[in-house]
Amino acid sequence: MNANYFISHLQLESHPEGGFFKETYRATESISKKALFPQFEGERNFSNAIYYLLRQGEHSLFHRIKSDECWHFYAGDKLLIHVIEPGGNYYCIKLGSNIYVGETFQFVVPAMAWFAAGPAVESSYSLVGCTVAPGFDFADFEMADKTNLLAAFPKYKEVVSRLSREC
Description:
With 167 residues, the protein is mainly beta. The chain has one domain (3-162): Jelly Rolls (Sandwich), CATH 2.60.120.
């Protein structure tokens, strides 16, 4: 099985950030605005989940959302998730199946952290899943502007320059 097999078999579609995706679950129940933290502008579904596939050379550019996002590894090769926390701490998580070399099956990106992802240099593709709670809404999504991110985090110039763009 390769990336094209999963794109076809799972009926994945092009994702606005790059790669391919399919929403597989969205809770029918909602959380009211008054029960949510103030950063949310309206009600949200309890949660949602997607398949997400990135091939070599494809990336999810730096962005942030207002909810925690749990990433799950399914197939293919190692995926690198680059995270810059609100306080400025940077780290890179290796999502994959080889736990003996520091890869992990799951990882949660904390709400409001800047993050980007892409297959490792030696990886041909990565098939992962993402679960968001409260559920994802594009009103909660912010794409990073390269100039602003570089000004805020100049010590991460290499990774920010490579995984962001001018907005």
